[in-house]
Amino acid sequence: MLDQPDDVPRPEAVTPSERALRESTLVVRAQDGDAGAFERLVHSYEKELLRLGYRMLSDLGEAQDAVQDSLVLSWRQLPTLEDPRAFQAWVYQLMTRRCLNLLRSRRRRRTSLTGEGDLDQEPAQRAEGDHLDPPSAAAQSSALGAGLDVALTTLSAELRACWVLKELHHLSYPEIAYAIGVPVATVRGRIARARLHLAKEMSEWR
Amino acid sequence: MALTDTGRLGCGRDVDDVWAHIGDEPDEHEATCPDCQAARADLAGLASATTAMVDSDRDDARLVNQPSALAAIVAIARTEVRRGRTLPLTLPPRQPSDLPADRPPVSETGELTISEQAVASIIRQASDRVADVEARRCRVSVVDDEPRSTATEAGSPTRFSVELSLTVGRAVRIPGLATQLRRAITTAIDDRIGVGVASIDIHVEDLHDA
């Protein structure tokens, strides 16, 4: 859509100050319409959101699209964010929900093509596309890492989201509850079940 | 396989309890319980694989966004910027008779206006040069300070009124900082926009650690 670079330098773009500012200050400025502050937020979150998307979707191209969609949405919805200190949990929420929606529509697509609603098969059958194959070099060098890589794709989307946010992104239980929109107790239960499932899968794999 | 779907081991211990101190030495019960030992082995494998995955994902050069995609996100934001009010830099004539004889009519020189967002950006830039303060929200409006002499009114510069919210360092003396900040902002607006500043209302909304 709008992928041409900015044509005219705007005041907020020529700001020389790259002085370190608190994240909450950048968030308030972005809410106030400062696109330069938003740009700094984009750069501080894009990588971790992509890692989240990749582990949720197992597809690099889809994960990249989800990052773009979520960050554009964050700009549009920023004025609705009440507490600027909640930005991290909030942007994780936008990204996680985007991924869960994509997984749901994948499942629907598959169901309508095959005429069967076998939801349990969803995780194992990954979208063919930009999968980083073989698994990343470091994970490959450790057999354990590679085993987890595969085991993770056998988790249901809901369990995977909770586990990835907790163990790979170190969000707190309340932050995960907020991101996914379920009670903290549910998050706790899902993470425990995800751990069990992964440990089992991996011990069978070994 | 010692783990069951209930989350409880054969010995009755909760898997979460085992997980909670997987990095520590086994406690008295775990040291002798075969269920706990098997669970600890499986969970330890998961724990180290998890650490390995965090590290390898972070270092994986293929796991990056395209610079063009990031530029597109920012470009979309810029095209959708909420620019706020349009502020005139010169006062319009009330009626033709207001125009002084030695001045060209305003309609020939044209209007000069600036967006509130552009002024806010200049204000933030100026305040970023002042230590121990981070400017946040900014509102700018034109002061309508009648009565002025009608002879000089049309075409003469407007004056701005600014409202600014801040967070300041915990140790800083606020009145002195406010003076310094007002001076920096007034100078920047005069230099860049050429209008005066009638007032700068400052609201300290938070204190931060230095």
Furnish the topology, listing elements before pairings:
The complex is a heterodimer of chains A (206) and B (210).
Chain A: H1 23-31, H2 35-57, H3 60-77, H4 87-114, H5 137-141, H6 143-152, H7 157-168, H8 173-180, H9 184-205
Helix pairs in contact in A: 1-2, 2-3, 2-4, 3-4, 4-8, 6-9, 7-9, 8-9
Chain B: H1 15-20, H2 28-32, H3 34-59, H4 67-79, E1 86-88, H5 106-109, E2 113-115, H6 116-127, E3 133-142, H7 150-153, E4 159-169, H8 174-193, E5 196-208
Parallel strand pairs in B: 4-5
Antiparallel strand pairs in B: 1-2, 3-4
Helix pairs in contact in B: 6-8
Q: Can you summarize this structure?
A:
The complex is a heterodimer of chains A (206) and B (210). Chain A has 206 residues and is mainly α. Chain A has nine helices and no strands.
Task: Tell me what you see in this structure.
The complex is a heterodimer of chains A (206) and B (210). Chain A has 206 residues and is mostly helical. Chain A has two domains: 20-117, Rna Polymerase Sigma Factor, Chain: A (Orthogonal Bundle), CATH 1.10.1740.10; 139-206, Winged helix-like DNA-binding domain superfamily/Winged helix DNA-binding domain (Arc Repressor Mutant, subunit A). In chain A, 66% of the residues lie in helices and 0% in strands. In chain A, helix 1 (23-31) crosses helix 2, helix 7 (157-168) packs across helix 9 (184-205) and helix 8 packs across helix 9 (184-205). The longest helix of chain A is centred in the middle third of the chain and has 28 residues, at 87-114. Chain A is globular and about 50 Å long. Chain A starts with 22 loop residues before the first helix and ends with a helix. Residues 1-17, 116-128 and 137-141 of chain A have low confidence and may be disordered. Chain B is α+β, with helices and mostly antiparallel strands. Chain B folds into two domains: 15-59; 84-208, 2-Layer Sandwich (Alpha-Beta Plaits), CATH 3.30.70. Chain B is built from eight helices and five strands. Chain B has helices at 15-20, 28-32, 34-59, 67-79, 106-109, 116-127, 150-153, 174-193; strands at 86-88, 113-115, 133-142, 159-169, 196-208. In chain B, the strands form two sheets. Chain B has a three-stranded mixed β-sheet with strand order 3-4-5, with helices on one face. A two-stranded antiparallel ribbon of chain B has the order 1-2. In chain B, helix 6 packs across helix 8 (174-193). Chain B starts with 14 loop residues before the first helix and ends with a strand. The model of chain B has no long low-confidence stretch (mean pLDDT 86). At the A-B interface, helix 1, helix 2, helix 3, helix 5 and helix 6 of A face helix 1, helix 3, helix 4, helix 6 and strand 3 of B.
